[in-house]
Structures are given as C-alpha cells and as structure tokens.
Amino acid sequence: MTSLHKVTRDELPILLEWTAKYLPLSYKHYETIQAKIQGIWQGTPLYTLGWPDIRAVGEGPADSSECQCADYFNKFQATSVFSPNSEDLEELLTTPGFLDWTKPIIFYAICHDNGDVVEKVSNATGTKYNTRYVNHAFLANPGDVVERTIPDGFHIRSLDPDLHSDYVASTWPHHRLHTNQYIAEVLKSFPSVGVFDSDGNCVGVELVVEWGYGSFLHVKDEVRGLGLASCIVSHLAQKRFQENKPFLAATLTSNKAAISLHEKLGFKIVYQMDWFVHSMSSEKVVLSQ
Fold first, then answer.
1. Peptide linkage before 142 cis (omega within 30 of 0)
2. N or C: lower Cβ tally within 10 Å for the chain?
C-alpha cells in the first residue's frame, strides 16, 4: 500500500499543476491550493497518495496553531478528496491514519464520481446513517454575467467579519458547530456582498469561500421577489472577474429556483458535485440532517 505524503508549502505548486490537469472536477483543491500559495488561507493540510507521482489528494485535520477556525474542520472530521481514479481514491480513503470511519465525517465539494466511492466505503462500515447531497456545479467566466442594478431603497457593500459572521451562519441550513468562526476567517480573506436596506439592516448575503465558489447565498423572506439574489450573485461575480478568475457556484439538484437564477445570469452547469455526511449513529452532524 502506498503511504500518505503530507504536502509542504514548497511542494504546493507541484500539487497545483497536478490538479489543473483535471479541471473542472478538481476545482475544490485547485482553488484552495492557490489561496494557500498566495498566503491568504491556511485551512487544512493536504495529503497525497503517492509523491511525486500523485494518485489522489485529501485534506487532513486542521492545525490550530495555523488555522483560526480549526474547530470548524475538526469537531467533526471535515475533508474533501479528489482522484481521477476510483481505485486510487478508495485506497486513500482506507489508508490507516487518514480518516477514522468510526466517527462522523463530512465530505464536501467532491465530484460526483468520487462521491460514489465515498458512499461505497461508508456503506462498507455497515452504517445506516449516511446522507448524500447531490449538487450542480455552475461556472461563469469574465464577461458571462452582467452586473444587475440594485433596486431603490437598498445598497450593497462588503460584509464585516466582526459584524456579520453570526448572521450569515444563522441563515445557513447546513450549519454546524463553529460555522461562525469559519465564516469570520473567510470574510477576512475573500470577497463578499451584503445587501442592506435604508435602515442599514442586512437583508441578503453571499461570500466567496476558499475554494472559489459563491456560498451562503441568502435573502430574507420579506424582501424576496425584488431581484436581490440576482443582484448579489452578479455583483459578487464581478469581484471574481476583476481578479481574472471564474466564478463558481453549487446548488442542490432539487433547488429549481437557484438553478434557474444562475442559468438566467449566464452560468453553465459544468459537472455534478456532492456533499456526503458519514456517521455511525443518528447524532446530528449538520442542522439539515
């Protein structure tokens, strides 16, 4: 069995080059590695199966001395994995010391084929408590999305990590312990958009996370139907485009409204991606379970 290799900071460009070969399926790791190289994100360490002949990559436990939101990743094991080869991914997932399958594990932003392998390994433990969330992954390149005009009585500005982290966490149906800490760190490092009414109340949000996707999109019920979600997404997309980067988003395949919104703005579905929650008991890992 091939041993795990912990990727050092100096080795990140090699791993970035490897993930670039498999875009768009590897966008989660490709964007995260770029953020690490730029020094704007620490997050979780990366491990590979094989080095320098890389066969698979996955995230390990966060180091609290480097990551200010380590509890978000470590309270329940949170990881993202990728491999273009199912057998290699299965070997990574079952390599001793990588994951503890007797405890809850949250897999996020994994391509759909990799989700099949995760589900296979999870089912092999005999659990009846795993949950799979299938999403469409959308992509827009610079020029694909036109910035929408904000309606009268509202204005847009970036979110403040000290003022808005708790609010964003409270609106997310999949939040778990320490989500507010994670959001605070994301807001310090990546673009965000908040819509505020004439009284200064935040009524809509979205932010870019470390893997390049727009996340946590939410508009308050009482102001829905005014086109605010389209405004938020289009304005956040421009911030990515100004960096000459694509803007990505993920929506559940069952969320017809979100799918329609992104398609009307100019996004295209490029692949399917999964979130997968493994647990050996009925204990809730995320709120939506």
1. no
2. N
- Residue 10 sits in the same domain as residue 129: yes
Domain membership of residue 286 (yes or no) is no
Instruction: Indicate the SS3 state at residue 84.
Output: coil
**How many domains does the chain divide into?**
2
Place of tokens 């505020």: 196
pTM score above 0.85: yes
With beta carbons less than 8 A apart as the criterion, state whether 106 and 79 touch: yes
Q: Are 85 and 56 in contact (CB under 8 A)?
A: yes
The amino acid at residue 187 is L
13: CB partners within 8 A, 6+ apart: 37
- Alpha carbon 224 to its chain centroid, in Å, reads 25
C-alpha–C-alpha distance, residues 138 and 146, integer Å? 16
The number of beta carbons lying within 10 Å of the beta carbon of residue 80 is 22
Residue 254 domain flag: yes
Residue listed under structure tokens 């659990």? 127
- Taking only the tens place, the pLDDT of each residue in 223-250 is 999 999 999 999 999 999 999 999 999 9
